[in-house]
Amino acid sequence: MDDHFATRACHAGREDFSEIGVHAPPIDLSTTYPTPDLDAAARSFDSLVAGDDPQGSFVYQRLFNPTTDRFERALAALEGAEDAAAFASGMAAFTAVLLAAKSRGSHVVGVRPIYGTADHLLTSGLLGLTVTWTTQDEVAAAMRPDTALVVIETPANPTLDLVDIAHVVRQAGPVPVCVDSTFATPALQRPLSKGLGAALVIHSATKFLGGHGDVLAGVVAGSHALIRDIKHVRVATGSLLHPMGSYMLHRGLPTLELRVERAQATAQVLAERLAEDARIARIHFPGLAGQDPRGLLGDKAQMRGPGSVMSFELASDDPSVMRAFVGGLRLITPAVSLGSTDSLIQPPAVLTHRVVDEEARDVTGITGGLLRLSIGLEDVRDLWRDLHSALAVVPERAALHNAGMRISAGRP
Ligand SMILES: *Cc1c(COP(=O)(O)O)cnc(C)c1O
Q1: Cis peptide before 155 (omega within 30 of 0)
Q2: Long-range contacts (CB closer than 8 Å, 24 or more residues apart) made by 376-379
Q3: Among all residues, which ones are annotated catalytic?
Q4: Is 17 strand, coil or helix?
Q5: Has this prediction a pTM greater than 0.85?
Q6: Secondary structure E strands in 183-263
Q7: pLDDT 10s digits, 226-240
Q8: How far apart are CA 333 and CA 310, in angstroms?
Q9: Residue 157 pLDDT > 50, yes or no?
Q10: Which of 68, 206, 304, 353 is a plausible cystine mate for 116, CB 3.0–4.6 Å?
Q11: Distance 51 CA to ligand 1 centre (A)
């Protein structure tokens, strides 16, 4: 019987500590490694270039780093994966996933919305792949003989749509499904588990995994065979995560579940209050009544809780009101990114998702007035006070619309 999540988070990647006599992961910054036995080093080189384990010497940091390897083993243990590969950013990880998939075909099926730059990477054709964008119920119809990968993100950035992973996996048939689980983290959702059946799970580790806003990184987990091909791309393209970043990510794993649960509890309270507030026109948060129509949230369901990111529109769509509201916040920092110790807010249509086609933004609900709020670890009382006082500049719904007009609050 495997240890439970919190226990694995404290011990994974640290199994040899007693043997080597340390209590914190050693940081190895070597860019090169001695190769006194040339033939053995050549064998190790071949093995590493293919994406396999070292056979003796690590040869060169771009091929292998033991500090990064520790973090990868730990993350794989938390996702229930055979292996994992860490990258210099979430986008570097996604690029390697796509390049590795090209051996199977040059077509990708994607369910929108996904992270803005990931959408842009696929739509632009920069990597020589073509993409068909679809919805979670129409994946089967979008599949082609040359489809190499199906890409989904749940909860989706920035509308918090929940995508039914098992439903997409069934439609994809033998084609691997890659799930961007950045908003959930393995503390809330494990897409590779038997019931869900995804082939790959990817994270921008810059967000909740790092958790402190000071590491840019990405990581992807899956089977030995798939991660081997992805590591091959990483060696060839040079996108390995720096060992300092790997150390910091590994250091953060024992507190991941605590951080995620605390921020989630705060987000639930704030989302409920915002949903009741007449100055909020619409709010997206999976933890609100009516916002999980597929029943994907729950202890035995796909995702254990709603997480701590939400998005909302103010009752006024005047851009100057939005700017005044954000400008009036004292604690919540206006900034892109999410999953940090402190709360962050930004308008996706203006910043993170500006690289997405305008029409696609409209269809998927990324409106000009949408604000994405990532809740941090501050006290809920102070965050509410901050939101409440900044909302003073926003007119109430009733003052804007005549009686009888139906205002969508994002709830039934
Ligand atoms: C931030 C983010 C990415 C990109 O990751 P980087 O580390 O910024 O390269 C991908 N997916 C999601 C859901 C994200 O939030």
Answers
A1: yes
A2: 376/263, 376/308, 376/340, 376/341, 376/342, 376/343, 376/344, 377/259, 377/262, 377/263, 377/266, 377/341, 377/342, 378/266, 378/331, 378/342, 378/343
A3: 62, 115, 180, 207
A4: helix
A5: yes
A6: 200-204, 218-222
A7: 999 999 999 999 999
A8: 15
A9: yes
A10: 353
A11: 24
